[in-house]
Design goal:
The protein contains seven helices and twelve strands. It is 39% helix and 23% strand. Strands 1, 2, 3, 4, 5, 6, 7, 8, 11 and 12 form a ten-stranded mixed sheet that branches. Strands 9-10 form a two-stranded antiparallel sheet.
Length: 249
């Protein structure tokens, strides 16, 4: 049997960590990469995991790239603490890594939940991430936000989904949007020369229209409206923080 390492990055995830670990307890090694949590994350994770490493958080890609080479096994399943591997996904992962596959990694679709509601549309219906991959063939691209795996080999796609419990409240979602917008400002600063009303008014408006109407957020009801509004706000905040960075210099 081919062995598997599950990697779970954490920072103050006491409300998620136990269920996250249990969902990947079919792995041969469970590795927690913690960014010096100040809650009960480590205490809860210790009896359920094999390896716990701590490192100061810089960005998602940096944290994961630091962790990947330290896995004992050649196949890695990477799970965020707010995600859960389903029994069906477990069976598919085991079958794939024992099938002499020629692929170096696999996209896994996610079924997203927001404020406890299953999201069917709002631009999240096509959400997928590369989370099953060969340790020595893959790494994350150097981006502050939404970095994805780059691979020396081919990438396939699995049939079964991860459950993704995104945000339990509007405030938690807003906090993450603000945090990500600050990081994105670093990625976009060199791409944008002059910030105009096109960036601060038109682009956020287009983003709302895209999520709410084109991607059918309207059919997700109130939460679809919130997602669309906050996605527009994320665009606006990105350029606000770029301005602040430039003014500070």
């Amino acid at each position: 049997m081919t062995k598997l390492t599950a990697i779970i990055p954490t920072k103050n995830e006491q409300h998620n960590i136990v269920e996250a670990i249990k969902s990947v307890n079919f792995s041969d090694e469970i590795m927690i990469i913690d960014s010096f949590s100040t809650d009960e994350t480590i205490k809860l994770a210790e009896p359920l995991s094999d390896t716990i490493l701590q490192r100061e958080y810089q960005n998602s890609a940096s944290q994961k790239n630091w962790a990947i080479p330290q896995a004992k096994n050649k196949w890695i399943l990477l799970l965020d603490a707010d995600e859960r591997a389903t029994p069906e996904l477990k069976e598919e992962v085991i079958r794939i890594i024992n099938s002499n596959t020629k692929y170096s990694g696999f996209w896994i679709k996610r079924q997203n939940y927001f404020m406890g509601k299953k999201i069917r549309f709002s631009g999240w219906q096509g959400d997928k991430v590369i989370r099953l991959f060969r340790r020595d063939d893959c790494k994350y691209e150097k981006k502050h936000v939404h970095a994805e795996i780059v691979s020396s080999g081919k990438i396939g796609i699995l049939n079964n989904k991860l459950i993704h419990n995104t945000f339990i409240s509007k405030q938690v979602y807003l906090n993450k949007i603000e945090r990500y917008a600050k990081w994105q400002a670093n990625d976009y600063d060199k791409k944008v020369q002059i910030i105009t009303p096109y960036h601060t008014i038109i682009k956020p408006s287009v983003r709302f229209f895209k999520h709410y109407f084109l991607q059918l957020g309207i059919l997700d009801g109130y939460v679809g409206f919130i997602i669309s509004c906050y996605q527009a706000k994320a665009v606006s905040l990105r350029y606000k923080y770029i301005k602040e960075m430039r003014n500070a210099n």
